Amino acid sequence: MRPKLVGVSSVKSRQWRPDELLDRYEVLTIPLGDDPDGEGAVEATLIRQAGAEPATAGTVLYVHGFTDYFFQEELAEFFHDRGYGFYALDLRKCGRSLLDGQQPHFTTDLEFYDQELNAALDVVTEESGSGDEPARVIVVAHSTGGLITPLWLDRLRRTDPDRHRRIKGLVLNSPWLDLQGDPLLRTDAVNLLIRGVGRVRAKAVLPQKLSAAYGESLSADAHGEWTYDLRRKPLGGFPVTFGWLAAVRAGQHRLHRGLDIGVPALVLRSDKTRFTGAYEPAVDTADCVLDVKQIAQWSGVIGRRVWAVAVPDARHDVFLSLETPRRIAYDEVQNWLHTIFGEGARR
């Protein structure tokens, strides 16, 4: 069952209100109707900075990853400083959009997210465009969001060219393009097992828990420097269900067959991976969530114009890295913006 599309008119009737999590930000609820996965009514949340300067260069739409939500104010400020409007989307059952009784981040089909992505794109372009000229939108996405958004753009290019032509670029921050770990996990037999269990017991939880090393490397409550809501982004992550993992694997297999997102893309990743069950200082300068070799392997299949950059000593979220790699990551984005859009991306 496919959810009904939500248009900008059904969202405009809702009022922006102050964000409860970030000062100087405000949120807009996007109602999505009944959950195709049977968890009642679902909604998404669009976030923007209150009173931001008018966008002169374009607009950014940011999409988070698994066990994540938007709190990266420095990323928003980077784009604001260069004349871009900045909007972030907390997907259904994620972050600000998680409602009582719902499994965090649970979906059985990544395509369901098209509903809120389309609605958010409509709001962004309606608010940011001038006259008959729609806003130039750049999509920025992290981790699982970095899988969801190329699939969405590929579908838009084929089925919804009017929406697709509003999007002019894609920036992926450590996108989840393949299943990390032992090669056995990527065999046909294991894929069939994941798909089968995901079909009949979608909310069954995988027995292996996620390591808290990444969360502890980030959080100011542990070893890191970033402050965020641990209820919405717990150190050890949310439980991984078979239904959700089956949806991810289906998306990855589709991506591996080759996409055409139809716009230039920048893919950022760390230069190394460090998997560990517990925090150690080495995870502060490596991706301890995904295999960066897999990101390098699959980056080129998303489209025809892809810039792939390994950022030395970056974390899984390159924009939450230590100071030096973080600045390198921002410089790479700046260089890409200047290459693609020229004078429209000011320093």
TrEMBL record:
<feature type="domain" description="Serine aminopeptidase S33">
    <location>
        <begin position="57"/>
        <end position="272"/>
    </location>
</feature>
<dbReference type="InterPro" id="IPR022742">
    <property type="entry name" value="Hydrolase_4"/>
</dbReference>
<protein>
    <recommendedName>
        <fullName>Serine aminopeptidase S33 domain-containing protein</fullName>
    </recommendedName>
</protein>
<dbReference type="InterPro" id="IPR051044">
    <property type="entry name" value="MAG_DAG_Lipase"/>
</dbReference>
<dbReference type="Pfam" id="PF12146">
    <property type="entry name" value="Hydrolase_4"/>
</dbReference>
<dbReference type="InterPro" id="IPR029058">
    <property type="entry name" value="AB_hydrolase_fold"/>
</dbReference>
